[in-house]
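Following up on my earlier thread - several people asked me to post the actual chain instead of describing it. Fair enough. Here it is, all 88 residues.
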Amino acid sequence: MSRPHKPVLRRCVSCACLKDRTQMLRLVRLASGDIGRDGGFGRSAYVCRSEACLQDARRRKRLQKSLRVRHNPFIDAALVAELNKGPG
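Reply from S.P.:
Thanks for posting it. Predicted structure:
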């Protein structure tokens, strides 16, 4: 008999809402110091895929603060790409 799995909840760095991690964008600071998206081990930060959260995270540099890195163009590029993707 298998039990249903509980969803793994993560907190958005922008709005502080708890959501299932599959519904959020994940950025990771890798051991090499690089930034990765949706994979790898290391310090990570989650942000909702809503336009308001993505814009707020970009404007207030919430991901840089959470990942403890200085300005990284990959973070801005990932947020802009997610904004341009649109719904669906």
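The first helix runs from residue 51 to 60. That should answer part of your original question.
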